[in-house]
Amino acid sequence: ALGSYSYAYRFKYQNGPWTYCTLDGSSGTYDPARQGSLTVNAAPPSTVDFCVLQWPPNGQVVAGTGFTVFGQVYKAGVTNSAGRATDVQGQLGHGVAGTDGSTEASWTWTDADFGKDANNNDEYQGVLNPGEGNHAYAYRFRYRAGAWSYCDLDGSTNGYQKQQQGLLTVTAPAGAWVQMRPLVAGVENAAAKLLVQAEIFAAGVTDAAGQGAGITAEAAFGPRGTSPSGWSGWLPVGYQGDARGGGTQSNDLYGAFLTAPAPGEYDVAIRFIVGSGASSRTYLADLNGATEYLPAEAVQLTTFAEPDAATNDVGWCNVQWPGSTSAAPNTATESIYGRVFVAGVSDHVGSDGRIGALLGFGLGNSSPRTDGWTWVPATWSSDADGLSSGDHANDEYRASFFAPPVAGGYRYVFRFRLAKGWTYCDTDGSNGLAGFDPAKSGTLTVQ
Predict the structure, then answer these.
(1) pTM of the entire structure?
(2) Rounded to whole angstroms, how far apart are CA atoms 53 and 125?
(3) Three-class secondary structure of residue 228 per DSSP
(4) Burial of residue 368, with CB atoms counted within 10 A of its CB: 0-12 exposed, 13-18 middle, 19 or more buried
(5) What is the pLDDT of residues 310-322, one digit of tens each?
(6) Which CATH superfamily is domain 316-446 in?
């Protein structure tokens, strides 16, 4: 109970009398004036001293996009120490615009997280993600599970006014334009990695620098000529950067290296989900961004088993020159040359365009067969002699590529095909699966 009290110790030995002890000890007469004294005061109030809805005062987001809000609280002798003050709880709440957060039971309140010290205050942060419409928001704090103090934009000192609540406008996801990028080649070896990419534009979402909020993307393969709505096996596709759209960097580019499926004929699609929950919208990308998805305008892919020496229609190929080179980051390499022999095709003067040729590069410890390499088309350069002078048995191709932005060691190889899968070519020549050695790739040093 509240009040003033005295206290003392007493001791005895075995069954002897008690000896009472004051602050001066027990050697003299016990003096009540020298007892200890204790005053029990009323507990300090459990409310906080001050709180405020710190920032932002308002905002507008697309449905499904989180909106971060900050609040601050002060309690004398509590929040002015370093780190999160114990026994302080903060919540961020929201409700229908125009209603009073301090009295309206329909508001939703969620615990906020301590963010940092702000002079003598503690700053908290929370994320709102309500549905479409206009929403009021505010903070509230309490100490030791006491009464809540409600906090508006001008602080709790002058009380809480609903006119000083934050205002968040949540709009429906904008209509989006989406389009697939063509594959470097519409033919791939089964189990190889191929780069699949698509662009999206959503007004007010993608036209700012960086990744537009509230967008997710997935890719899948499906049977040729079918609707992606019946496909399965959708895989995540990541944001890769801003892309040029309408003369500005207003599009977002998404892409991923996917493992090519078993030999067969497929369509490839990326779907974009803008927003979340009931407000979300899904957009399917094909090669024509001007219309809804049509199977006739899908990206098409044909996969083959990688040919071996016994089944290959490419008789021989190599990385001709150079075996190694260097380039600065993000600059073009010198021209790189590769040669190929295909009986009845390459062994005459000129080129009839039937041979497919790609130059690719990847990390220095990787393999073009199983890892995500970047490929660029190679063009016919000249005839080249094979086993005999003047036989024009081989065709020579050339290409260059922009070096990666990160310094380090990389590999490059050519690959060629006629009517089957791709044959990979190293610096000492190969004639199919058994003849290619990734360790004998050309080497690029980016420095």
Answers:
(1) 0.65
(2) 10
(3) helix
(4) buried
(5) 888 999 999 999 9
(6) Immunoglobulins (2.60.40.10)
